[in-house]
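Slide 14.
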Amino acid sequence: MARVAFATSSPPLISSVRTLRRHFSAFAAANPKLPEMSRPSHHSSLEVIGGGSDRFLPALKDSLAKPYNAFPLIGFNRHVETIYAAFYRSVPSVRLRRECLRTKDNGSVALDWVAGDDSYLPPESPILILLPGLTGGSQDSYVRHMLLRAQSKKWRCVVFNSRGCGDSPVTTPQFYSASFLGDIGEVIDHVGEKFPKANLYAAGWSLGGNILVNYLGQESHNCPLTAAVSLCNPFDLVIADEDFHKGFNNVYDKALSKSLRRIFSKHSLLFEDIGGEFNIPLAANAETVRDFDDGLTRVSFGFKSVDEYYSKSSSSKHIKHVRIPLLCIQAANDPIAPDRGIPRDDIKANPNCVLIVTPRGGHLGWVAGEEAPNGAPWTDQVVMEFLQYVENRETINGERSFDDAHQIQV
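Slide 15: predicted structure.
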């Protein structure tokens, strides 16, 4: 990292302005001046549904018209693809500038900006906030590839490293959870206040996607984001937990619990003599993610049991309330984010959402496309096509063109 800066979060004044502007503008589909667009076709290898399909699929017609061809030998098995992507996908070199944000509860998160962006990007350049998966951070290959893709389109990018992740500092005896929205809200407000002329976007993978969709749904009337993308989101954490303990999935469970233990051990002194219902020995020696959540996470955030934590933290319960453009991309054979957990009915009913399900891809894999097997995942191009489409059409004649389709016209 080039340098470290500390900042303190401040009241979300700019986000309030962004939100108010959204409530006093019109949705493009209801504007008779806008040209009608027919639903573009997509290849039969892809499942494409959602109440917002007619609105957003024109942006993706080139990518979705082609068959999804998993890379030979690697893509034939979901576990092979998941593991190959984790260990053999290239990790692009990206210079990052770290900013440490102090939160209202005296906690800390780390924001990694692409170094040098401010020297050539105007202040109104769109900003993409990236949320990695559980224990992930700006060091991960899929994050780095997305940074490069967005940067090539002249977007400003920042990675939100949750407490303890990506060597983010931990300054209180609390990490983060699948449903804790305090940090993401403060990060988005902080970024918006730094760049008040820019439109804000976000993309999250795995647990980061779950947190993002929870935020979009629960803060639907106050969300300052213009659009968002969720990838390999487990959606229903109860179902995901059930599958996590089956067969080969135990390998992922043990790997993630090891990462959690490693993060915890760095900051274990903060949890000494914490008392209450915490089971620090269970968390410190967790053999499964469920053990860690039982000993630490669910107690930190006030849940009576792990099952209650998983149930109430599932973003599948909140996607129906999303009021900005949201693209969800899932793999039908994802071992960690099960296909049966996808809230298809709610996505179909929400005019702001569109879902793409690829037949293969594993978890955080998607080893397909022009850059396979070691380059960027297949999803990167689709993500940027969607976001750029929304950004290009975000204003028409000075008014927002992609506001919530649910909103009452005023």
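Speaker note: Residues 249-266 form the longest helix (18 residues).
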